[in-house]
């Protein structure tokens, strides 16, 4: 993703641990700086794989903050990138003074990919390592830890400025083990959370299972459509973008591209038009299949333990909710 602007500021706790000091960069990096491009790319890749909170800017009330005004001034050319990002870093320092106990570098980047512009920032820590110098001798070499992010956020500037009712153009890391950091970042962003990614993802998968059951697809078709959903969700997660219901519907069934979307709307699952994929929830969504002795069984793995139980000792499956079509066939047979 090409860099339009990028910069690195330093955050460091004071010896008494009561505040964070900010050492601003003397200037922004050159847009063509290959090392910065590589660094921001690695941080973005790490960010995309982690659990996040999603929402939008709160424009009034206690949650609203000055970031929107600063961002607007920067984008309008009324404030340079150095001034804008220094103000952002100082506000982070104020909010996180009790939550951040180690120093780090705040990397801030204004990026563009295609027609989409984003503002991304991440705190990266430096660790001591070992390198080899020109004389082939082992020497100390500082390294940035780009994988273990604890603080990062992204604003989809394009979605925000288009103002088309999106509820999730702002995202931030939301690690359960770093709640104070997450709360501090949300306060700096001045945002209100609009979507619970795990809950929305679970609801989407439930809607998909209901759709497959309603359409009574054969085993191969069901597996193919499940793989399509998981692959699409995984790709969106890799790119750091939400799933779009209409786009997903077209992929699930190219012969009836609106069928799955209409199923979701008609059944009123309450899903948002865009859903941030949740990695943990998706990892549990696979299909178990088996065929032997005239019996063919196929079901989504997330049903195991709820509507389907496996008794390993007795070597049997217990189905608590028999599909309607199968139930009708069994009733006719019994009659």
From TrEMBL:
Protein family according to the UniProt entry: Belongs to the YejK family.
Subcellular locations according to the entry: Cytoplasm, Nucleoid
Keywords for the protein's UniProt record, in alphabetical order: Cytoplasm
Keyword Cytoplasm included in the entry's annotation: yes
Protein name: Nucleoid-associated protein
Lineage of producing organism: Bacteria, Pseudomonadati, Pseudomonadota, Gammaproteobacteria, Oceanospirillales
Main location: cytoplasm
Xref: Pfam families: NA37
